Amino acid sequence: MSGETERKRAEAQAARERLIGTVNDLGTAVQDAKQRARERAVAAAPYVVAGVGLITVLSVMRRRR
After folding, report:
1. What is the rounded end-to-end Cα distance, in angstroms, of the chain?
2. Which of 34, 6, 14, 36 is closest to 22 using CA atoms?
3. Where are the alpha helices (DSSP H) in 1-65?
4. What is the DSSP letter of 65?
5. pLDDT at residue 64, rounded to an integer
6. Which of 5, 11, 14, 46 could join 1 in a cystine, given CB atoms 3.0 to 4.6 angstroms apart?
7. Which residues form the domain of 35?
8. Torsion-angle region of residue 36: left (phi > 0), alpha (psi -120 to 50) or beta?
């Protein structure tokens, strides 16, 4: 093989490795975003439940008047 062919093969291999790294980085970013969303949902759950409970209590009290 000529030197030119070897150089192109090396460039192609380097490009493949960069692409794999980019895909892995994107996958990690997506997983991190999902984890943060889950953590926020879990942290917000008590407030949501309290809000629903408050609305329920107020609606029951209002009907009793």
Report:
1. 93
2. 14
3. 3-64
4. -
5. 82
6. 5
7. 1-65
8. alpha
2: which DSSP letter? Answer: -
Radius of gyration of the chain (CA): 28
Q: What is the pLDDT along the chain (65 residues), one digit of tens a residue?
A: 688 999 999 999 999 999 999 999 999 999 999 999 999 999 999 999 999 999 999 999 988 87
Q: How far apart are CA 29 and CA 39, in angstroms?
A: 15
Token pair 């991190």 is found at 32
